[in-house]
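Quick one: structure for this chain?
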Amino acid sequence: MHARIAIAALASLLLLAAAPPSPAVREIEAQANDRERARAEALEEAQAARSEIAGLDAQLAEFDRAQAAGERTVSGKRLRLAALNAQEADMEQRLGAERAELARLLAVLEIFRRDRPPALLVDPRDIKDAVRAAILVRALTPMLSARADQLRAEIAALRDTRRKAALASEDLFVTESDIAQRRAQIETAIAQKSALEESAEAEAAEAGQDLAALNTRLHALNDLARNAAGAEGAPPPPDPEHAGLFGRPKPFLSPVAGAPVRLFNTPEPGGGRSFGWTWRPAPDTAVVAPAEGVVDYVGALKGWGVVVILRLGGGYHLVLAGMDASQAQFGHTAKAGETIGRMAASSPPQELYFEVRKNGAPVDPALWIKR
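Got it. Here's what it folds into:
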């Protein structure tokens, strides 16, 4: 951007004192308000999730109590099912024995039925045997009928026992399935709400960190504005004696290679005098930190390009403006010579502005950088 625009923009940034808030301050305040709202919403969401988890825990505890009481019913159903299965096995065994005995008896009677002696030409002994057989058959017939009726009743009872065992087994399965399904539903809901609570708390913590960072940046800008309240008109001339006071930084590196196109206290093309140094580096040139310092501000401000403010300590701040992008992070300590930004790759070359401030007043960078 044009040198005069860059200098005027930075002068507006650093001379805020009694004037209305600058766009930079308003922008940071708006971001801080947004993050505060996001933090409040996240905390409210986390609290709601905690309340729901507490309710689900209470449901689970009540369910456990009901399940403990219901275990007696389930145990009774298991015992009844086992008894019915045992009864069915016993009836199967008895019916098997009855069928075998009845089958043998019927086989004997069938022999008697087929091999009856003829009415004539028979031996007396054969007649006696036939009479005995007839008497035996007549005597056995009622008994066989009773045994058959009893067998039919026992078979019907066996079928009924099997049906009851099947129903008891199905009832037990349904009861246990309902218990397992209900518990799984409650535990799944608790897991989901716990994940939601963790996510909301993490979001609230992140918003809180962002808010703290924005407040720090806002305080840094306001401090610079208050310190710069007395800086009016042309900057003061270089004062080697003042620059040599306690806390003076070590020599600075040049933020870019090459000679500056404007120096401290030299005329500006649009009028006024320069508060710092200005370079016109080649497109896509890397910009390095002139000295080790904490990043107090970094951001793209409308009409100003990307601005980075480094706090060195002892009341010193370094201001670099006009970059196209910056990888510096707020709160990070940038080392001297560390790349903190890059000029635009477009042509014509953009201007990089560099200013040194001591207690809010601009100081000639020549005190630390050799031309």
